[in-house]
Amino acid sequence: MNSEPGCSLAMALQNKTNPKQFVFWERYNDQAAFDAHFAAVHTQAFIKSALTDLKQAFDYQLLTTEG
To answer: In what residue span(s) does the ABM domain sit (predicted)?
Structure first.
């Protein structure tokens, strides 16, 4: 994931008490990079695979810094 253009951080976290549960935490440089990631063929294939079972989704706000 973090080899994708515009992805500056990608982590996979495993729940210690439920080893079948993971959280994916990613940071993208801008909205265009985020949108490109979710439009990518490999991302769509992962989302549609039997490996994923979305338990919770978060509404996000892109934060930027100036200066």
So the answer is: 1-63
